[in-house]
Amino acid sequence: MQIARPDSAVEKILPGVADFLDSQLTMVIGDQKVAGESGQTFPVFNPATGQKLADVPSGTAQDVDKAVTAAQAALNGEWSNMLPADRQRMMLKLADLIEANGEELAQLETLNNGKSVMMSRLIEVGASADYIRYMAGWATKIEGSTIDVSIPVPPGAKYQAYTRKEPVGVVGAITPWNFPLNMAVWKIAPALACGCTVVIKPAEETPLTTIRFVELCLEAGLPAGVVNVITGSGAEAGAALTAHPGVNKLTFTGSTETGKIIGVQAMQDMKRVTLELGGKAPMVMFDDMDMDQLGIAAGIGALFNTGQTCCAGTRIYAQKGIYDKVCDFLGGMVGSLPMGSGLDPVNQINPMVSAKHQNHVKSCIARGVEQGAKPMLNAGDYDGEGFFVKPEIFTDVDQKMSIMQDEVFGPVLTITPFEDPDDAIAMANDTRYGLGASIWTTNLNTMHRYVPQIEAGTVWVNAHNLPDQNMPFGGYKQSGVGREHGRAALDNYLETKSVCIALG
Ligand code: NDP
Fold this sequence. Notes:
By secondary structure, the protein is of the alpha/beta class. The protein folds into two domains: about 25-40 and about 55-80 and about 145-275 and about 480-500, Aldehyde Dehydrogenase, Chain A, domain 1, CATH 3.40.605; about 280-470, Aldehyde Dehydrogenase, Chain A, domain 2 (3-Layer(aba) Sandwich). The chain has 17 helices and 20 strands. The protein has helices at about 15-20, 60-75, 80, 85-100, 100-115, 115-140, 180-195, 210-220, 235-245, 255-270, 295-300, 320-335, 355-370, 400-405, 420-430, 445-450, 485-490, and strands at about 25-30, 30-35, 40-45, 50-55, 145, 160-165, 170-175, 195-200, 225-230, 250-255, 270-275, 280-285, 315-320, 375, 390-395, 410-420, 435-440, 460, 480, 495-504. Strand 8 (about 195-200), helix 8 and strand 9 form a beta-alpha-beta unit. The longest helix is centred in the N-terminal third of the chain and has 23 residues, at about 115-140. It is globular, with a radius of gyration of 24 Å. NADPH dihydro-nicotinamide-adenine-dinucleotide phosphate (NDP) binds next to helix 9, helix 10 and helix 13. NADPH dihydro-nicotinamide-adenine-dinucleotide phosphate (NDP) binds near residues 176 and 178.
């Protein structure tokens, strides 16, 4: 069933979703749905209620080995003999299938992740289908180049050289819980366009839509083994995938800490690696900004997905002339946002993904208070069912405080005044992260002067937190290695082979 009107509430869980949750959930290896070697499972929860939703197989190193073997067989089999146009056709069919199953996928995502069903419909389903179509377009446009060379030996010899772009091989993809289906697609779609095969390990908290997506890959006609899914813990299944010698490339989105472990492991056998890691994005607001945009800055820039976004603009720097107005507006707005289940899009503050993450966000707020920052909303603890955290805004914040330096990944903002723009840029850059940032101004000079000074992979102007499939996305500094999206993403999944021909 296609998605419902994006802003409509879910009145009833669809029978297809209920049946899926009641079924014995499996991993997919080759074209087989498998329970895994250990027979063990782990529970996944509905963050809005704290109730168990389903049990999912605990994948082991043996399961990972089987999945990698299946991916290697597919790489050396039918898949590699297909025309790029055939790959493209299958990807387009996959996008259609995502839309055809859109409302089921959206409900499943909201039940498992807790996010607003509007976001599930528009992003997890809609943007994922669009992303697959975008990448399907590239499948038929992969090209090398001809190269003039100046090789002087033996004297008088002539050469012709060219490059071929070849699939990097088996891709190990490890994804986070904040945009479960969309992140899976960000990795799988370019891999398929380039002719690679994939073993994906979704986050323990949110494996459900990835399992369903890999089932749809088979329905779309992708040969057995082209996309495999192993569910399980990062410590076991994730680590086994990272270390497996049959994996040629790793692509990961998640925390900087885990990204470092994966990066170091990748170098043991020189796996290619792309890392999209944490962030602590600044939003620098100048006196001349259009104040009507404050709502967008807070709603989309900072609190989109209840702040569980890697480029959430949670550090606000407001110039002295507008500082009080910014505080008043954000205090009023953020403090009154409706909080509740994502099944009703009226709720703009949805639960944290897990009890563990709820505790993490609460402890970040407590540390902010301990370190002397002033909680403007003084929201206090949430004591109902589910993994909710009440939003908080801190003022009187020092750059050194953990609330300013460490990723919270929740509905927690800081607002800091500045007078001199150069000071604001210095504070904005005073972080180990560099994923996203924004400048809010109506002055072109201000924009052109400060955009180059910001250390971030994406700088928005009068906007924030809006990626696009055609716009490279990734981090400076400890926010990652490499870029996803656009043409740049293809290079992550291709090797370059130089061919040099001695002419007779
Ligand atoms: P992690 O980075 O630990 O998890 C992301 C993925 O990596 C999950 O699939 C996880 O598996 C897997 N993983 C964990 N350890 C290993 C390992 N040793 N080898 C291979 N894979 C591994 O993030 P958390 O879920 O623990 O969240 C912690 C913090 O990370 C958040 O508070 C937030 O600040 C940040 N984060 C950033 C994201 C981003 O978009 N950049 C997304 C999510 C979180 P499993 O879940 O099964 O353990």
